[in-house]
Task: inverse folding
């Protein structure tokens, strides 16, 4: 693994105005992810995981704080430059899939490859859909696919450009055990073969444990769970380790 940072986050805050007043969703997040690393972000519903992922992927802007993505400070970019950076370096698997309703499965997967001017986009998209077990659904539109099938189309679409950083929000959330394992295998293959940095939000402990690091989000604050050397000590003191252990025990 490289020692170069793929993502550095300094004192990140995200607040939004609501009818009840200002709501702080992220409350001073600090983290550093090296190139080629795989990290899992765990934590309860509503704790801010998707909000953080959207900020890291330059899909949204923070209230304050700094994000450096592959050496570029996001706050220095206007919307156009952010879009260019996303296209060049980032893929995102959304919790709600975000497939284009008017395009069939094959066209959805081809889209980012065509936008990036990749050669043989159709053949590559077909191969990707075959890898996720959907060769028999190429011409189905999103509303003709099951939730798990839509998720696998979204995964194929995220993979086609071999991104530098892949953000995935619950990538196995709608899948059965067999397909979860298949998708996890694909994620880690991409990580190994293309040195893609993986940032996964997940409730899936099997997937989380396959990552090199686990972080726990709780009401807008993140805690690291790291370190094999002092495992016993870490277990008792570290909320992220305790969370993993307690979910496992239940
Ligand atoms: N634009 C917004 N305006 C008001 N509240 C928001 C907004 N976006 C998010 N929130 C609130 O912020 C909190 C964090 O939301 P977020 O989607 O990041 O949670 P999450 O950890 O991804 O949860 P889940 O596991 O259910 O997906 C939630 O309580 C949500 O209601
Ligand atoms: Mg979420």
Result:
């Amino acid at each position: 693994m490289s020692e170069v940072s793929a993502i550095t986050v300094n004192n990140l805050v995200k607040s939004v105005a609501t009818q009840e007043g200002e709501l702080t969703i992220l409350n001073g997040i600090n983290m550093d992810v090296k190139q080629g690393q795989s990290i899992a972000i765990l934590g309860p519903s509503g704790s801010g995981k998707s909000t953080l992922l959207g900020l890291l992927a330059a899909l949204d802007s923070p209230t304050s704080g700094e994000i450096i993505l592959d050496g570029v400070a996001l706050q220095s970019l206007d919307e156009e430059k952010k879009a260019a950076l996303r296209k060049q370096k980032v893929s995102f698997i959304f919790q709600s899939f975000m497939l284009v309703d008017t395009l069939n499965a094959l066209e959805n997967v081809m889209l980012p490859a065509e936008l990036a001017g990749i050669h043989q986009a159709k053949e590559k998209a077909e191969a990707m859909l075959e890898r996720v077990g959907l060769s028999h659904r190429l011409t189905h539109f999103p509303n003709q696919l099951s939730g798990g099938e839509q998720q696998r189309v979204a995964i194929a679409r995220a993979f086609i450009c071999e991104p530098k950083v892949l953000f995935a929000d619950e990538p196995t959330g709608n899948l059965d055990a067999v397909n979860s394992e298949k998708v996890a295998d694909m994620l880690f293959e991409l990580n190994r073969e293309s040195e893609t940095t993986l940032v996964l939000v997940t409730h899936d402990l099997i997937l989380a444990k396959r990552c090199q690091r686990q972080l726990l989000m709780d009401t807008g604050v993140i805690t690291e769970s790291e370190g094999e050397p002092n495992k016993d000590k870490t277990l008792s003191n570290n909320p992220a380790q305790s969370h993993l252990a307690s979910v496992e025990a239940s």
